[in-house]
Design a protein that fits this description.
The chain contains two helices and eight strands, in the order βαβββββββα. It has about 150 residues and is an alpha+beta fold. Strands 1, 2, 3, 4, 5, 6, 7 and 8 form an eight-stranded antiparallel beta sheet that branches. About 20% of the residues are buried.
Length: about 150
């Protein structure tokens, strides 16, 4: 079951989508946290299907890729994470899905789902990561709302 955050944003889906996929622009609206320390490498700009990126956290490294890109309604980021404390090749499988549904002109419902897959060796960490994903999802959505609603 994913960690889900849903929020209504007073903006058209295209404006929200373009903000979500602008990986280089995250520094302008998404302050770093222990879950999101920032993106250190992006393979292409503008972001498109197949764009890759790296996020280095205190716990490990996420090697991300955009695996679905349907402007303005859906984008999916796949970012398997190698924990620093885990044996090489033992990864937490993370997918972040963002769905946008225009409710009326200028109003869009945004749903952010984080799917976490844990290998047997890391099953004991599942609850900690699920709790973190829920809190981070709510933080990201609120900051996304503030950012997009402040844009002209």
């Amino acid at each position: 079951m994913p960690a889900t955050s849903i929020l209504t944003i007073n903006a058209p889906a295209t404006k929200i989508f373009d903000t979500v996929v602008d990986l280089k622009g995250y520094d302008d609206w998404l302050p770093t946290s222990t879950s999101f320390p920032g993106i250190t490498s992006i393979s292409s700009s503008p972001t498109q299907l197949g764009t890759t990126y790296i996020e280095s956290t205190p716990s490990g490294i996420r090697h991300g890729e955009v695996i679905e890109f349907s402007r303005p309604s859906k984008v999916v980021f796949h970012q398997p994470m190698q924990l620093k404390s885990a044996p090489a090749g033992v990864l937490i499988d993370i997918k972040v899905e963002v769905l946008l549904r225009e409710k009326s002109e200028g109003t869009t419902e945004v749903e952010r789902n984080v799917y976490l897959g844990f290998p047997e060796e890391l099953a004991g960490l599942k609850t900690v990561f699920e709790t973190g994903a829920s809190g981070e999802g709510a933080r990201v959505m609120e900051l996304l709302k503030q950012r997009v609603e402040s844009l002209p």
